[in-house]
Amino acid sequence: MKALVLAGGSGTRLRPITHTSAKQLVPVANKPVLFYGLEAIAAAGVREVGIVVGDTSDEITEAVGDGSKFGLDVSYIPQPKPLGLAHAVLVARDYLGEDDFVMYLGDNFVVGGIDGPIRDFRAARPDAHLLLTHVSDPRSFGVAELDATGRVRSLEEKPAHPRSDLALVGVYLFTPAIHEAVRAVKPSWRGELEITDAVQWLIDVGHDVRSTQITGYWKDTGNVADMLEVNRLVLEETEARHEGLVDQHSTLIGRVRIEEGAEVRNSRVVGPAVIGANAVVAGSYVGPFTSIAEDCLVEDSEVEFSIVLRGASISGVRRIEASLIGRHVRVTSAPPVPHAHRLVLGDHSKAQISS
């Protein structure tokens, strides 16, 4: 079995961060979200991985390399334009050959890994196996309808009137039967080749399509709110570790990870939180569920429930929360406004000034 990891796309919902960075490399607890998926694939025993890349291919390639640090053998597959998930399968045809494969969306986060679904797929080997989860608003997802036996009866992409609340998680398992399906479908109203249409084609011609409803946590980290929520979830599992410098005037409360070269001076850090390598926190408060990346500076400020990316600085700011601060951003306090009025009034003028 191989893995096909999708790491193209423009990440419009995370702009302006993704104007200069791949959305799959935005960090969660100071580790790119893409890495969690690669680690899950390796843990499931899959070694050969093809990563579909687009405009940010150089950045993805530099971050992942040949995959050896994950125990993987990684190849890169260019996708000239992000024309849909089924199109990604089309462009990966030569790489996938006649192997079964797991397709994993690189900006998705699945708690608990994918070992179980892969074992089930290998044992039963249906033509397609989908991961599903209940969601409160299925209109934003691909939605599955099951029959009385639990097999997939129909699929629809972002329906206005969903037939169920079961959304497709960004992990799919396929036999080579999917290659005929992706060639058979036409672009949707969005101008994309939808994987939901391809799987529906498999169903319509009588192929075996099964599903697993996951009970663990899943998020598509496509927007800031979801990024912060995943960051919170990962930090919940953080263990206290202090590899940097914490002076005697500082207080660490709860599970706080201080990475190598970091300095905490005259500050209070309440976990779960992580302070990245060579970062400096001085005269500040860092609250729960905050990730401060490497080479950052936080001085005379308060930060809570936020993600601060590499090289950013926050200085003299009273309170920041529920925020995503990009790489090398500078956040400072505004200059004071004088409490005075300066007037030039002509003869016989009238002026009203609220005090």
Automatic annotation (TrEMBL):
Domain of life: Bacteria
SUPFAM superfamilies: Nucleotide-diphospho-sugar transferases
Signal peptide start and end residues: none
Protein known as: Glucose-1-phosphate thymidylyltransferase
Pfam families, A to Z: NTP_transferase
Nucleotidyl transferase domain boundaries: 2-236
